[in-house]
């Protein structure tokens, strides 16, 4: 055993020596792995030795495990303008920072956020900085993020900032400096958490041995800080998102689930009596705290951006009346302007009587005559950028231009623009980002990175996350890094001096009231859960038709007259449902089109709608459910061409049905029996009842054959039950009874009606006046009609009436529970279910 350990250690040392010899830091650029003398830093030696003991094959396997976990968990992001999401690009090697160095960073971040809070309080308050000349008025009011309606409004809770972030990097002397401030709605903290989860699972032993500081205490303290700002014991905290098409929507849903917050969009909220309320299926419920990820200007279309559909009309009025706490306060984004960075050293001395612990990159705002001429005269040695994030020379916003890279004509144009309107420009010291190791084809290579560090307001003061959001560019000359093509994100490991205690977000038993149901379900979430159920059922019904058609085509008896009629019936229903072109008379091609075609009713198109609905409520779905939905979508979409044979069509449809069964099983066995589960199941029940009525009308007629009856029983998955109950074969009345009226058959119309009645009975009421709400009135009437019907007297007209009643019920459910628009009702009394 000892010899084996010695051999493993020797192998690891050899591997480290190989990696170090092959590593080539960029000239004159500080590097995390190598020090200035070209030697590996001790903490990296320990990390790479431990990594090397695993062996190349094991390392590759663990890297692959991390990548697979990202795909299966749906960790993703969206580049601005993209239609689809991209898998999260995780760098397999973390950024390592020693404890002593981290303490200096944390102290600098705490000082900086205190400075930011003091500046905001003055800018939106007394304005002493402007009056004294410490801060030019135009540097503030020239920013589009300075909100005049908020001037003089003290934010509810008394604070402006609750979560602050700074992008930092190493300067030429190796010291950390601030590249940019994030005070508006800092993003990335959720991705930092996801990075940690993935990498710690891939290398659990290495994670423990390196004594990595945990992230959970930071998020717990942040949550406690928001709760402390509310006026109620058990406040309702909402994460306000721009919606599922935002670049970082996954992160927002991930954080909402992790912290137990309600994920809401602007349309979920409305104003009543100076307070913000959430539209839920139980009526309007007060929101105590809004943690916003919507830019300030879009938060109130009444007083800010009138074109915004992301905000809450009247929100600023609520702030004036102290009706809701908004984190971060509206207007706090004014401090993100590069123009303000040029004044930070002076403001720190003025407000805190201290020097900046973490210096800025040197910045000259061109709104001042002397600085303006310096920037123009020394343009070649500077990076020119918009003072407020505005575009320069037609380049994208926030993109700095290095003077020496411009043509003489561009320099002349830029100089003229600066002289004309200098307040819109700043010159900054050219930043050459320091580098960190990235694993590339079995070796380490240096790549530029930016580290975003977070500070949260807590009941005990400011707390800095022991880690952060690291972005790494594949371009060695990168001067700014944002998530996009060729950019990766790395976990950040802060190495403690001693073993770190295992911690979680679990609070003590004394501080939590037992609760068996989640908070009230927002109407938007109810809407999407309902439609997720409907789309799943539509997909299943289409897959069953496709499988039946392909199965009949494979059957050796397909040349009989009756079978030919049955095939025609199945094909006609597929085209009627929009699963294939109406003029397509080739059943083989029609079955393939129904599975994978571009028409709106194909299984692939329906599954695309299903996945979209699921993405809107990702925070309410378990990882297993999301993974299965993705598996089903990719299983239908992965093939670029249509199936080439009936057998292939049959197999792919059958595989899809197995995945849908798994999704239903997860929902049935794992989903809490609250309103969310009921709305999801109601969507499936409504759609299944409607489809079953259509199946029955289509395959039970005076001209129907035994083949038609057999297909119908297959479509509702009742073939075995029927055969065991009736030994004499299929007959019209017995089939009709089992398909439509049998309350013991989980696929019958009657069973769906019973389940819908039970769900509606258990959903909350808006009023306790004893009157039936419209959905309950409809289901009582339908239940009576179905339960008293007799198979022998049940014709297709009566079945059509059942179908129309179910469609009307779906509309009534939407009107009652999806309380959107200005007339959302307030509940008189609720049952507490949500």
TrEMBL record:
* Any one Pfam family match given in the protein's UniProt record, by short name: Alpha-E
Against SUPFAM superfamilies, the record matches this protein to: Glutathione synthetase ATP-binding domain-like
Q: Signal sequence: where? A: none
- Xref: InterPro entries: ATP-dep_Glu-Cys_Ligase-2, CP_ATPgrasp_2, DUF403
Limits of the Circularly permuted ATP-grasp type domain: 94-472
**All copies of domain DUF403, residue ranges:** 521-818
Domain of life, per lineage: Bacteria
Extract the PANTHER family matched here: BLR2978 PROTEIN, BLR5612 PROTEIN
Q: What is this protein called?
A: Uncharacterized protein
- What is the species listed in this Swiss-Prot or TrEMBL entry? Beijerinckia indica subsp. indica (strain ATCC 9039 / DSM 1715 / NCIMB 8712)
